[in-house]
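REQUEST ID: PR-0412
SUBMITTED BY: lab tech R.K.
PRIORITY: routine
TASK: structure prediction, single protein chain
INPUT:
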Amino acid sequence: MKALMFGWEFPPHILGGLGTASYGLTKGMSEQEDMEITFVIPRPQGDEDQSFLKIIGANNVPVVWKENSREHVQNRIGWIMNPDEYFNLRNGIKYDFRRIHTNDLGCIDFSGKYPENLIEEISNYEAVASVLAHQIEFDVIHSHDWLTYPAGRFAKQISGKPLVIHVHATDFDRSRGKVNPTVYKIEKDGMDAADHIMTVSNLTRRTVIEKYHQHPNKVTTVHNAVEPLEDADSFVKKERKDKVVTFLGRITMQKGPEYFVEAAHRVIQKTKNVRFVMAGSGDMMNAMIELVAARGIADRFHFPGFLRGRAVHEMLAQSDVYIMPSVSEPFGISPLEAMQVGTPSIISYQSGCAEILTHVIKTDYWDIEAMANAIYSIVTYPSMYKSLHELGLEEVNNIKWYDAGLKVRAIYEKVMGI
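STATUS: complete
OUTPUT:
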């Protein structure tokens, strides 16, 4: 079976959980004997792991015909795409996209990020999808998150192949209900056009059904998992006097960073032998620095910035508690990553991973007292820490992407009528 997937991020160059989930799912699915995945992203860097799938950079797909020699193409993009593939894709240009600004190869210079002209890049991604839909072989289309829904719709329109969309989050999650009408329309149009919709949690499934008016039979929950951590034993917690409590993620309203700060303030009133870390970046970072100062706890608080790769697990391993107080979290992989290195986790009931995790502490995001009491208990009572450490580790090691991949495969077969 051949799947054409449209994504926006792929490790090691990621800006959030979307890339991590895309990697884990595709790797898990690749363990199926006859599964072939072509994964499209706006701008690959060339160091992505392609041992289990094929990555195509949208920025290397010609959408406007330009006369070029093989030598020129080799010099320009030969390090990341075979010139033969470029010329083959060029034969798939069936529409006039000269309105779009392109380079000397007739390709679009996607940023590969989330620029101010994001809506324009999403629209341009459709042009790339049209070329691929005409020129490569696939059985099913799989679009990850709203950014790629228009590309998936266009590919379906051209090819007639079934479209499955993967809802990793909705604008209701990202905006705390202050939905951007442009984004909502893109999401709604994608859902309406899809043959089936996958959501990362039952929480998100309810949102899709109730807010986007999709039939329940069309929406299936496929919970996320976590990539096995082969070198988990290499992460050893250093001996220190103070306990460490960590928030790791985007510092934005969806993630509830202010509740973390307020809970920290209450814990520090009970004990001084604890430090708090807010790792990440986002539009609320300055506000959180100011809130920490206003609460008089700046000497107990640290802001290390955005972490990636091994540094993420290093930070989690050195923590005594990981906390995710999200206001609306479609899933949330980071608690699972914390549990992989034996760090007890506190998560909000308003997170999708709360549906599958047992050996964590769950509180409402707004219940600062409960959150503070949970933190205090873990850092104060060794038996509680030990229980969550051991049982959490055992639990997370049984949550596998391969199993999620089997559920996705079943959905593919359903929409293909197999």
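NOTES: The first helix runs from residue 17 to 30.
REVIEWED BY: pending
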